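Sample entry follows:

_____
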Amino acid sequence: MAEIFDDWSEKYDQWFEKPIGRLIKGYESELILGMLAPSRGEIVLDAGCGTGVFTTHICETGARVVGLELSHPMLGRAAFKNKGMPFLPVQGDMKRLPFADDSFDKAVSITAIEFIEEAEVAVEEMFRVTRPGGIIVVATLNSLSPWAYRREEKGKKGHPIFKHTVFRSPEEMAALSSVQGMIQTAIHFKKDDDLALATEIEIEGRKKGLNRGAFLAARWIKPVG
């Protein structure tokens, strides 16, 4: 799978430089940081860190971050972005994490799990390397959202990235672990919605507790004992 992403590192970053990309990044970062709650001195695993789009925000909290990524070009961009930050890049596979048990205070994975058909294996690995009482957060594109539908249609037409994706619903994400977790979503507006109204749409979606937000995050706490 690594070679699929090697040519997309620059395009991935460019997406978040667009007006809609910046807006989405803000909402997604807010949700992830709220669920993960990283703090100074903690050691956090960012599994499938990509180009480090969200990694920087975690580093800025004072946490020490180990970024694991399969694609070498993407990992290189993540290392460049986080130069001088408490960040250690490691090339590796989420299904076989190269770390000892209980190595991290917290673990997070953002929009990487959809490229893993055996997602339960990756989540189990994240639990394994997180200390008891630690937090695990996994985010993906919600299969109930119009955003996922668009990407699935592109995948059917042979898109080099989206033809390999497996999008999941809130219920399917919750079922990736036997531990009871918490589910939240964000990005309740659509790609074609007026950006001037996006904030109002987002606020309304959260007030109603809608489960169709495009950005879906699951949070678990590793049991103690």
